[in-house]
Amino acid sequence: MLGKTAGGLYWMFRFLERSENTARLVEAGFRIALTRSKDPEAEWKSVLTTAGARSLYDQKYDDYAASSALDFLLRDASNPSSVISCIDNARTNARMVRTALTTEVWEAVNESWMALKTALKSPITETKLPALLGEIRRHTALVRGAVHGTMLRNDIFDFTQIGIALERADNTARIIDVKYYTLLPSASFVGSTLDNVQWETILRSVSAHRSFRWLNNHDISPMSIADFLIFDSRFPRSLSFCSRILEDNLGYLAKDYDNRLPCHDMIDAQRERLREQTIASVFDDGLHQFITSFISENNAIGQQIEKDYRFVG
Amino acid sequence: MNSDRQHFDEMLLGQDGVRAPYAEYQKWFSQEDPTRLSKKSKEAEAFFRRTGITFNVYGQSAAQERLIPFDLIPRVIANREWTKLSKGIEQRVRGINAFLHDIYHRQEILRAGVVPVELIAQNEAFLPQMIGVTPPGNVYTHIVGTDIVRTGEDDFFVLEDNARTPSGVSYMLENRETMLQMFPELFSQIKVQPVSDYPKNLRRSLAACAPENCDGKPTVAVLTPGIHNSAYFEHSFLADQMGVELVEGHDLRVVDGKIAMRTTEGYQVIDVLYRRVDDDYLDPLNFKPESMLGVPGIMDVYRAGNITIANAPGTGIADDKAIYSYMPDIIEFYTGEKAILKNVQTFRCSEPDSLKYVLDNLADLVVKEVHGSGGYGMLVGPAASKKELASFAAKLRKSPSNYIAQPTLSLSTVPIFTKKGLAPRHVDLRPFALFSPDGMNITPGGLTRVALKAGSLVVNSSQGGGTKDTWVLED
Fold it and tell me: Is this complex's ipTM strictly greater than 0.90?
């Protein structure tokens, strides 16, 4: 496979994952701002920070009104993490690697792009938002379904999964990073409304408010939430889960190409660290520090993969 | 332009009759419900959009992708007609290859005075870098898309020999796919020669032209300028259908005297490169230094016989519009036979007598730039305003050798499907010929382009043209 094609697949799926993550953040933010928060602007500010879009946003707007935040996160082409930018980038990459995709996958991406471009043509009002978010979710699910149902399990598939795993881990880690202070034991006033709102936001941002409750019915504590987001290997957005997907697919590549590369050592080291740690040790050493180093480690692995598999010349 | 003359319609004869090749189709069509067909027509458009069968229009924003309108009435060619056409095309393609070999070697045709020396020496399409180079298999034009027009029952003319990188074959294939999906019953009733083997034949034909020193199965790749190119869809389509890599210049480099592509496992040698990049952009070291689309040093690898480039660099000298007028003589010179397919009468404005005639009759002629393509930079006399005629005349006087002129042909029409029923529109035909040491392979039919505006003669997709499925009937 061409290195460029591997890179195109990897980025296509990173962008698809990112569009979904942005939509999920918007959904959580919208819901919290609507139902729980006394200060909706602070909520949108926090959503923008988590989406990594704060500095760009601040250059453009003076406040954090819902309408501006929605516009910026959903349909502003100048924001590289907006849903429209992500879908556009995903499709551009898909066009580039079209020969590596099945017809079903290509058509699912192309249709998503056509539908969302139309849906995001005019500003999104709060009335229209739930339907729009539903549409985004449906389309990304369609692409994912097409990938799983039609693509060969070969190097092409591996690079798609690697892109997803890296992007998703980055997203979950950034959510923890932005909200880590609410997860610190010292800041916990168990049962206070403020904390409940914060925790609900976190869980909703990763679409886990229900599954978390199912798994931890009587233990809703900062530590149990952090444990869930970092270590629970059942939860498909946890750092541990993403790391395992990465390990698996890099492993398939190593086997397929009969070649172990520096990125394999890096993922092994990350797996090892996650295995050795517990949530207690993470809190002892400092949650913030743990997350910060995870994010940079995750980035470093991504860059090493780009180099090892010759994405660019 | 609007021309009120009587046109030859390939389907209908006057009020009631249909021409024989259309008899079966007409029988089916007359029983169809127009509303159902209208619906089918919309379905086809949705299908093209979803599949992404689009082209980019130059001068518009990169995101601008357009559909080439597809008309659901097929263009039908009788077997007998096709046999003659394909013979004519084969003869022409062989003639062109012999000409190219001669022009870059002994230049006997110039010595014989059949083609004037200055037409070659001063021609930008002539590549001095190709002098003395014999491409692998001695094939220059691996793929040719000859543009053919028709004016009457037995009157076919070659309008242009596209010997560089002819495009449109993906539309030929997708048009058939669309028809098969929309009207499967038609194809069980009427026996139409299939076109779907083209990608397989293309790959086989390209592989047959691999360099001699290539051992094992040749690696073929398609070189595209990238996703912003107007024909990118076709490039990725062909690579996909052939099962070969689609590469860009920055995927390639010279490794140990060969061209290799950067893969996830290192550099892999390419034996045959089907390039959809113009000569000028192919190699920044040998041609345009600012080109980002090509591969530095590929011409040196080529000259050393270590890669096949399809079509060979420098083939443009054969489809140049000034050379075109000599094509019947060229064919006779090399094949010893009269050209089967006629040329359109052509006035070379470089010749004083012709220039005078052209200037005197500008309003009745089509004037084309010698190096132009895509219908740009041409004057359609009968459709032009007085002002346009005057300004074009000035251009002509200033650099006459840049232009040729032809009478406006009364192009044949084929009906298109409209809300108000069938309506005649002018068409042309681009069949695709593959040439290798194994022989010639011409896909039955080709791409029919149709001017969708009533009376218009411009069929180019960039200027409002559409396409039709083209049927060659089984015997």
Answer: no
